[in-house]
Amino acid sequence: MLIADRYQLNHPVGRGAIGEIWHATDQVLNQPVAVKLLQPGQTDQVAATDAERFRLEAQTAARLNHPNLVGVYDFGSHDDRLYLVMELVDGRPLAQERARQSVLPPDEAAGIAAQMAAGLAAAHRHQVIHRDIKPGNVMRTTDGTVKITDFGIAASPMTPPAP
Question: How many other β-carbons are positioned within 10 Å of the β-carbon of residue 163?
Fold first, then answer.
């Protein structure tokens, strides 16, 4: 499937609470990207709530630029479905690493924690609080770089108060 006449969806790589993530190719720049598509809502009210949450995630994440945070490139709508285009991380979530190896060596764990702290500090400088740090939302690239993902429930000055 081609999204917005630009992003060729290749294969799914994950699913979250309100979206599915695809390995894709940016046909204009000829580079791999990740595309998160908002899942269709079951009711108009759910769809509107999910769309607003997705839009806030895109706006919040787009304000951030740091080596330990997944970069956001584009946001839009295609066939009445919102999409978010992000940096494609060549690696795996820490949750998968923990399943393979339940205990990390102390120096490796400290290195991961330091990179996570650097990414979170960068977000905090922009008044963004992630609020969902867990092994499934932290990726580790093949070269060992840690990338924090999924700002779906982040709080920031742009975030409206919860009902």
Answer: 4
Residue by residue, what is the 3-state secondary structure of 54-101? Answer: HHHHHHHHHCCCCCCECCEEEEEEECCEEEEEECCCCEEEHHHHHHHC
Nearest to 94, CA basis, from 111, 78, 80: 111
Task: Name the residues annotated as catalytic.
Answer: 132
Contact residues for 119 (Cβ-Cβ < 8 A; gap 6+): 66, 67, 68, 69, 146, 147, 148
pLDDT in tens, 60-108: 888 899 999 999 999 999 988 899 999 999 999 999 888 888 888 999 9
The domain limits of the chain are 2-86, 91-148
Spatial contact of 142 and 91, defined as CB atoms under 8 Å apart: yes
- Domain spanning 2-86 has what CATH number? 3.30.200.20
Q: Which phi and psi (to 5°) does residue 18 adopt?
A: -125, 5
Number of helices (H), then strands (E), belonging to the chain: the values are 3, 9
